[in-house]
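for the recovery benchmark. tokens below, seq after
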């Protein structure tokens, strides 16, 4: 499987730009007193999250990436892909758990299913 067969879903990169601006804006505050230096960690954490977090889909399954970790879900474990009230995509798993798919919107579900290489079931159009 080549990396070209993987579909990546990421958050808007404007979040990363905002984190860089916030980091630069926090520099004068953080350099004023030594105990204010941890203020820089907040925009830094937001920037790393914006760069890293998201969902990768390929023929073998989904990889959900967060700030510090990741979770792999194989397609056979997924019972249903649906949207929630906030427009986010969720995966209902065979063990009853519900996994929110980072950076995937309800409108992205057809592209997510296409990455699996399997046809849509139930609502084929």
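predicted aa per position
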């Amino acid at each position: 499987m080549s990396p070209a067969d993987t579909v990546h879903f990421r958050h808007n990169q404007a979040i990363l730009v905002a984190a860089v601006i916030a980091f630069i804006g926090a520099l004068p505050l953080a350099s004023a007193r030594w105990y204010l230096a941890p203020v820089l960690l907040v925009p830094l954490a937001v920037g790393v999250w914006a760069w890293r977090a998201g969902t990768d889909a390929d023929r073998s399954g989904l990889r959900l990436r967060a700030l510090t970790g990741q979770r792999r879900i194989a397609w056979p474990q997924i019972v249903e892909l649906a949207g929630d009230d906030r427009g986010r995509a969720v995966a209902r798993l065979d063990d009853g758990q519900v996994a929110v798919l980072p950076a995937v919107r309800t409108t992205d579900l057809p592209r997510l299913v296409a990455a699996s290489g399997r046809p849509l079931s139930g609502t084929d159009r």
